[in-house]
Amino acid sequence: MTIVAHRGANALADEEELRVHLASLLRLENIGLLLGAGASCSAGGKTMKSMWSSFLADHLTEAKWLVSAKFLDAACVPSATSEEAASNVATDAAPAVPDIETLGDRLEIAIEEWIRQGNDAQLKDAKSARAALSRSLVRAALLKEAWWTSPGHDVSLDGLEHHRSILQKLTSAREPGQSPPWVFTTNYDLAIEWAAETVDIQVSNGFLGLHNRRFSPQSFDLGFRNIQARGEARFGVYNIYLAKLHGSLTWKEVGDELYELPCAQAWPELQKFLDKATDDFPYLVAPRAAKYLQTVGYTFGELIRRFSEFMSRPQTALIVAGYSFGDEHVNRLLRSALLNPTLQVVVYLPEFAGNVSDPALPAPVRRLLWLQNPRLTIVGGNDQAFLSKLAEHLPDPAVFDEDLNDLKKKMARKPDFHDEVGL
After folding, report:
1. Run of H or E residues at 7
2. Which of 19, 147, 229, 346 would disulfide-bridge 233, Cβ 3.0–4.6 Å?
3. How far apart are CA 21 and CA 205, in angstroms?
């Protein structure tokens, strides 16, 4: 299938026009990336749809209890009455995928209330369902187990080549005086951190410290630079800012503080949880309303604030990939951010086939497309909008070489009447 791309109400002529548009965006003062679960599929991750299918296949009993206890709509759990049906649930008619964050809210609040009431029967089932849901989320974000136990990560890590390419292109395109790129993600996995480490890009994710990395949001205001570079030699930056809007598999709450653990240290507890040796999950993923009201609320509030503040800056570009528009909080921020007259948004959405009113598209996407905003570009065409294609479409790092001069000519304005007559 060929690439399908629209900018506002107009279709882009071809892939080359899209490349030129992306090249011009990388020259803006601020550049950011928003990644959803789909961006980690090449590294072994799962989309929310795949995660839910796996949950139904592995934990059908808990899924049925969630329906019977009114936590879920019946459309989310197909009728399966045998083990054979359960094992084939992923190949049946696709079930509706619930809002996992809302489901977590309902479970968390109910558990707290049943603890207060001493309702042990319901409490046992609810805790079992919560643990099953968390296990499915962790497995979906685990990527590859070998990456957790290896003492170091070689540049040949399969599955992270697209992440590495994108990070290198974004950091290398920064001009002297421009700030490092921001990466916002709703994922819990470590794809960005691992990819950045393999090419020696520093990751500023809000945590400071060497042996005890504690959440310190002021670190987002710091950066790295080469003290020997002067003038044009200062091209490129040495770090990225990473805001994980839903938490991470290596974030752990200890007392009143939030810490980031090395993956090798976090892995034994994660493995113990996945093996069902315990139902207590010690790490911070899927922030729920009940959790937000506790001590870590400021962490997620700070990350969301940074996301909103980034999109309000002048001369800003945000590239969205692998995001299914299933988080209404993020969707609302994107809609309001388009009020910024200099914000440019590019969305890579595989299911977009050129029809802006296609009912198969997520409702938030149709709402954005309905605006026909020329500062919103959407790229579709199935596999033509995968993360690998974004990595391919972004321009290679270049400073004053033939490719860059070529690109400048393509981006140059057409001569006007005075040019033509030699005035």
Report:
1. strand 4-7
2. 229
3. 29
Summary count for the chain: helices (H), strands (E): 17, 14
Half-sphere exposure of 314 (CA within 13 A, CB side): 0
The rounded distance, in Å, linking the Cα atoms of 248 and 142 is 11
Q: Provide the angle, in degrees to the nearest 10, between the axes of the packed helices 60-68 and 48-58.
A: 100
- 3-class state of residue 329 by DSSP: helix
| 147 burial level (CB within 10 Å; 0-12, 13-18, 19+) | buried
How would you label 152-163 residue by residue, b for 16+ Cβ within 10 Å and e otherwise? ebeeebebbbbb
3-state secondary structure of 202: strand
Element (H, E) at 260: strand 257-260
Could you tell me which of 207, 193, 196, 194 has the C-alpha nearest to residue 238? 196
Give the pair of three-digit tokens for residue 372: 């026909």
Whole-angstrom Cα Rg for the chain: 23
Contact 97, 76 (CB under 8 A): yes
Domains along the sequence of the chain with CATH? 4-44+153-407 (3.40.50.1220), 48-141 (no CATH)
Distance from C-alpha of 101 to C-alpha of 107, rounded to nearest angstrom: 10
HSE of 204 in the Cβ direction (CA atoms, 13 Å)? Answer: 19
184, two tokens: 């916002």
Kindly tell me the burial class for residue 250, based on how many C-beta atoms sit within 10 Å of its own C-beta (0-12, 13-18, 19 or more).
buried
Neighbours of 176 (CB within 10 A): 13
Alpha carbon distance 75, 234 (integer Å):
56
> Are the C-beta atoms of 37 and 186 separated by less than 8 Å?
yes
**CA gap 184, 333 in Å, rounded:** 13
Cα separations (Å) of 17 from 108, 249, 361? Answer: 48, 39, 24
Residue in this structure with the two tokens 């974030």, named with its chain if needed: 251
The pLDDT tens digits of the residues spanning 261-291 come to 998 899 999 999 999 888 887 776 654 544 4
Query: pLDDT tens digit string along 172-220?
Result: 998 888 899 999 999 999 999 999 998 889 999 999 888 889 888 888 8
Q: What whole-number distance in Å separates Cα of residue 311 and Cα of residue 337?
A: 6
Distances (CA, A) of 366 to 331, 340, 360, 369: 12, 20, 9, 5
**Which residues, at least 6 apart from 344, have a Cβ–Cβ distance to it below 8 Å?**
25, 28, 316, 317, 318, 375, 377
pTM (predicted TM-score): 0.86
